[in-house]
Write a structure and sequence with these properties.
With 58 residues, this protein is mostly helical. It has a domain at 12-50. The protein contains 3 helices and no strands. Helix 2 (11-31) packs antiparallel against helix 3 (37-50). The radius of gyration is 13 Å and the shape is flat. The chain starts with a helix and ends in an 8-residue tail after the last helix.
Length: 58
């Protein structure tokens, strides 16, 4: 996402974009075997709760 696009987003849209970016990073770690499925599940769960993103589908 370009800087000018980022600046036009609402705080909630920025939060969602950050969440999705972080989830993609976790996905990559899991795909490359950097983390286990158990670590992935815990990290995703904790991040989802802390960022209050339970309703977001990626």
């Amino acid at each position: 996402m370009e800087q000018k696009d980022w600046e036009t987003l609402s705080p909630e849209e920025k939060k969602k974009a950050l969440y999705l970016k972080q989830k993609r990073l976790l996905d990559t770690f899991l795909e490359h075997g950097t983390i286990t499925q158990e670590q992935y599940d815990k990290s995703l769960h904790d991040m989802t709760e802390k960022m209050e993103m339970q309703d977001v589908e990626a």
